[in-house]
Amino acid sequence: MTTLPNAAAAFPDPADPYRRTEQIFPRLTDDMVRRATGYGRIVDRPEGGVLYSRGNRIVDFFIVLEGAIEVLALSTEDGKPDTVLTVHGQHGFTGELDLLNGRETLVSARAQPGSRLLRIDRPHFHRMLQAEADIAELAMRAFILRRMGFIQHGLGGVILLGASRTASFLGLQRFLGRNGYPHEVVDIDRDPQAQVFVSAFGLRAEQLPVVILPGHKVLYDPGTAALADTLGLTEEIAPEEVFDVAVVGAGPAGLASAVYAASEGLRTIVIEGLAPGGQAGTSSRIENYLGFPTGITGQALAGRAQIQAQKFGARLAISRMVKGLDCSAHPYRLALEDGRSVTARAVVVASGARYRKLNVPDYERFEGQGIHYAATAIEGRLCPGEEVIVVGGGNSAGQAAMFLSRIARRVHMLVRAEGLAATMSDYLVQRIASTETISLRPRSTITGLGGAGTLEEVTWFDGPTGRSVTRPVRNVFAMIGAEPNTAWLGSCLSLDGKGFVVTGRDADGAPLADTFASSRPGIYAVGDVRSSSTKRVASAVGEGSVVVQSIHRYLGGM
After folding, report:
1. What are the C-alpha distances in Å from 30 to residues 35, 36, 112, 125, 162?
2. What pLDDT is stored for residue 77 in this prediction?
3. For position 535, what pLDDT does the model report?
4. Where does the Cyclic nucleotide-binding domain lie (predicted)?
5. Where are the domains of the chain?
6. pTM of the predicted model, to two decimals?
7. Residue 330: is it exposed, middle or buried by C-beta count within 10 angstroms (0-12/13-18/19+)?
């Protein structure tokens, strides 16, 4: 932090964002400040005072000309004063990622007495980002690092208290983590600090999990929609607002569509039920995506794309599922599960696909309580020193097996086929073969699940031996096949026999010139949800970027 004399000593972790002082709290040059002045107005604050408070939406961007600005985080504990996170001096500036969207800000800011500031409102701030590339680069890097610092140190966030192996507790962790919201996890089964919170707030076991907010407000076992509303993660959309394009789904295809549409001047909104990333967002590491020779996690890739889309002005409506599409009139109207709606002149269907469920008795009982569809750090914390099972033979299953092999004592990889070569990239096949802690079990299927409350043991038919095997396995990662998320489309579009959206043909089946056009004009499909698409991140990104040209042609011909 800029207020610390020795950041390296205060933050010994080399990866800590706060060690990168010159990048996380940079100072603009005199020339940058001169150019920025054209986008705002100079204000004097002789008495100092609050510039904005935690929970405010659409806050302004401030550059210090004289004096200083203090940035504060509210305390989540009784008796503790608000924490001063940093003090911006001359030519320093406020803001982090929430300055790019309409969410509630995580921190407060106050000017010190005698300060002189350059104040830039939200519309002019976005114009400055587009026009002043060097200022944009400096600010965007700082915003990303500041949010990373919040997440790493639990600053400006909430406390999540509960039992680690329950579905609701894990679901809230995934929601907060994948949406980049700072939080501290307190596990009542492992963390000695847990009883302090239980006693202080008078909690009972049946009330868990709870989310403790600054100001000591407690949310008891909230759903993700209620949590998003309370934290201000949901976008406020005016009922009369009409977008040029609405993208349904924030996986790689949807985010690529949003980046290219917004960067080319289209009023764009992305609607996502859980968090950016889609299936790719749950990947522990993607190593064959162009431009990332050391690999990148799916969540990091999705996070960068989300920020990029917001930089160009795209809106992201998170935590609201689309439940229906009214295609009987134009503009099209998307009905959301909370009763609101979004209106757009063009629609991109990028709602992706989900992993299939195993056909095993009691399967639903253990979903989220031993059966998982992602292998990230959240799930990894449940597996140290244990046996785990990965079901599936595709790249996602392979990436999960490799990730878990560094944590678990043994990874049993169950596949129906004779091997992995036909369904998995060769680099993963070779790594799995050379990893001693992974046991590949071809021609094998799970036949039974057992446990009181949470999963405790798994039985499978073992192809190589022809015998039934039962092991004390508490975590199964199911990554088999894909089912399209198209139920919300109703009868609006033509679907193939498996429910994927047919593109390149009109309602009568006649060929169309546009590869990604659906059977209804102005509605397009990209990525995994599209019939005959290649189910890879790179191809999804390509389709999402290319479709924008079709949208331009359609809107231009209206």
Report:
1. 9, 10, 22, 18, 50
2. 56
3. 86
4. 24-146
5. 7-153, 158-228, 242-354+483-556, 363-478
6. 0.91
7. middle
pLDDT score for 7: 47
Tell me the one-letter amino acid at 350: A
- How many helices (DSSP H) and strands (DSSP E) are in the chain? 15, 28
Q: Is 81 exposed, middle or buried (0-12, 13-18, 19+ CB in 10 A)?
A: exposed
Q: Are 398 and 424 in contact (CB under 8 A)?
A: yes
Burial of 538 (0-12, 13-18, 19+ CB in 10 A): middle
Q: What is the pLDDT of residues 141-161, one digit of tens each?
A: 999 999 999 999 888 899 999
- Whether 499 contacts 352, CB under 8 Å: no
- Name the band, by pLDDT with cuts 50, 70 and 90, for residue 78: low
Domains 242-354+483-556 and 363-478 share a fold: yes
Exposure string over 17-27, b if 16+ CB within 10 A, otherwise e = bbbbbeebbbb
DSSP 8-state assignment for residue 355: P
CATH number of 363-478: 3.50.50.60
What would the pLDDT profile of 466-504 be if each residue is shown by its tens digit? 999 999 999 999 999 889 999 999 999 999 999 999 999
The CATH superfamily of 158-228 is Glutaredoxin (3.40.30.10)
The answer to whether domain 7-153 has CATH 3.30.470.10 is no
Type and span of the H or E element at 231: helix 224-231
Name the pLDDT band for 80 (thresholds 50, 70, 90). low
Residues ≥6 apart with Cβ < 8 Å to 191: none
3-state secondary structure 273-322: CCCCCHHHHHCCCECCCCCCCCCECHHHHHHHHHHHHHHCCCEEEECCCE
**pLDDT tens-digit series, residues 291-337:** 999 999 989 999 999 999 999 999 999 888 899 999 999 999 999 99
DSSP state of 267: -
Whether the Cβ atoms of residue 520 and residue 492 lie closer than 8 Å to each other = yes
83, pLDDT greater than 60: yes
CA torsion through residues 209, 211, 212, 217, sign? negative
C-alpha pair distances (Å), 247 with each of 129, 356, 526? 23, 24, 10
Q: How many residues does the chain have?
A: 558
Q: How far is CA 124 from the centre of its chain?
A: 27
- The number of angstroms, rounded, from the C-alpha of 191 to the middle of its chain's C-alpha atoms is 26
CB contact at 8 A, 307 and 289: no
Average pLDDT, the chain: 92
Q: How far apart are CA 523 and CA 257, in angstroms?
A: 13
CATH fold, domain 242-354+483-556, is: FAD/NAD(P)-binding domain (3.50.50)
